[in-house]
Amino acid sequence: MESPTARLGEPARTFLGRTHQLFIGGRFVPAAEGRSLPLIDPSTGAALTEVAHAGEADVDAAVRAARAALAGEWGRMPAAARGLLLASLADLIERNAAELAELEAINAGKPVTINEYMDVPATIEHFRYYSGWPSKLEGATIPVMTPGTLCYTRLEPAGVCAQIIPWNFPLMMAAWKLAPALAAGCTVVLKPAAQTPLTALRLAELTVEAGFPPGVVNVLPGDDRTGAALVAHPDVAKIAFTGSTRAGREIAARAGGDLKRVTLELGGKSPNLILDDADLEAAIAGTFDGVFFNSGQSCVAGSRLYVHRSLHDKVVDGLAAAARDAVVGPALDRSTGYGPLVSAEQYHRVREYVVGGLAAGARLAVGEVPPAEPVDGYYVRPMIFTGVTADMRIVREEIFGPVLVVTPFDDVEDAVRMANDSAYGLAAGVWTTSLSRAHQLAERLRCGMFYINCWASGDPAAPWGGVRHSGIGREMGRANLDAYLEIKTVWTAYGDA
To answer: Is residue 119 a contact partner of residue 171, using CB atoms and an 8 Å limit?
Structure first.
């Protein structure tokens, strides 16, 4: 078997060969308890390296470092200077783009070409977008009723922020969390997913190179217990989490008990509608990419497809042909379009849903049940189910793998009813040549994001998030920036009452 690092460039190979410690107070330090997390290359199933595993003492040290930075140099820094640091970090990410793309590939199983095309550029643009905000955060003068009084507001950082990110877009999710918090003047303790901490640790190195003061950004690889300790720490003022709805509920309950600010970007089971007047070629191509991108490991995957009955067979045939042609392979292979799942745990989770769907009576239009145990990597080819019913788990629950369920409908009212029959509400979309019908559906479907003749479009300026079990608050844009700011009202009596 080829070595997991054989296809890496020299910078990525050098970084991988280092000792990977916790990043606290501007320097790398060992875990207090000496524990470590093993990392696996999803493309081969082989051991990759180990990273330090943060415990409660490390969490406390990181939060104290963040508090000290907030009270010190970072808290006194002019807003424009914060913006320049963010812009400098964006430039450094761009300069090290090839290395970051390779590290993401070997750690997360994401195809290196996709990282080069999307993940790394999106990370750069996120920091650049928020680099322009610090000098634009203005308070307001309030025309109050009391004579001889000046009343105005200040926008101030929320404080120390705990940020917990998932394994499906590790570098990009780090940017989604860090950039707005830093633009607002907060300090951060970032916990990457246990499976995929490498690019977050490399990013920590780049913050030092960019000139961020010690303690502004801290990075703690760890497991769920690390995250729980971070959420529970009394000096954490704001929690931002992206991940499963189950974990989000637990975090929200704890944050509510402590009256901490919280934003949650959670799961989805997003409905995608193809109407009878759709551009069939565009709808098939967009639908395929919308559900199978990143091997289905995306909260916004359009995993429930509702197709007008007159087009059902043509759509399924087109999707099946694309699935058979999909190039599934190692993440560092430049011909790969779809990489492995992130871990053995995720492989078995997806397989369990597939087996359960077949047992419940669903039919596989394309694809096959993965082997009981993965062989040389966690590969699952795209699968499309037909003959499904609304009560099946594969229709109702988020699988987070390359699995699509297809249901025909006869009229739009049926499609709306089925699309809204979900606890989730992250995204929805429609393929149609009628803008009137499209905008009516945009109003009627319960979701945080709606796509018309496209899927999963995004921009740093455009809010991203969902409703119901898909989360609280928004990522990106001014909406996310506001989540890290407190409004302080100042009253001044300057004349006779």
So the answer is: yes
Q: Is the sign of the CA dihedral 320, 322, 325, 331 positive or negative?
A: negative
With 0-12 / 13-18 / 19 or more C-beta atoms within 10 angstroms meaning exposed / middle / buried, residue 47 is exposed
> What are the domain boundaries of the chain?
10-266+471-487, 271-460
Q: What is the pLDDT of residues 140-179, one digit of tens each?
A: 999 999 998 999 999 999 999 999 999 999 999 999 999 9
Which bin fits 481, alpha (ψ -120 to 50), beta or left (φ > 0)?
A: alpha
Q: What is the DSSP string of 160-177?
A: EEEEE--SSSHHHHHHHH
Q: Identify the CATH class of 10-266+471-487.
A: alpha beta
Rounded to the nearest 10 degrees, what angle do helices 412-420 and 435-444 cross at?
30
Does the reported pTM lie above 0.85?
yes
Question: For the chain, what is the total number of helices (H) and then of strands (E)?
Answer: 18, 20
CB of 130 closer than 8 Å to CB of 183:
yes
Examine domains 10-266+471-487 and 271-460 and report if their fold is the same.
Answer: no
Write down the CATH number for the domain with range 271-460. 3.40.309.10
265 is annotated as an active-site residue: yes
Closest CA to 159 of 82, 239, 87, 226: 239
Residue 401 is predicted with a pLDDT of 96
Q: Which of 265, 345, 368, 475 is catalytic?
A: 265
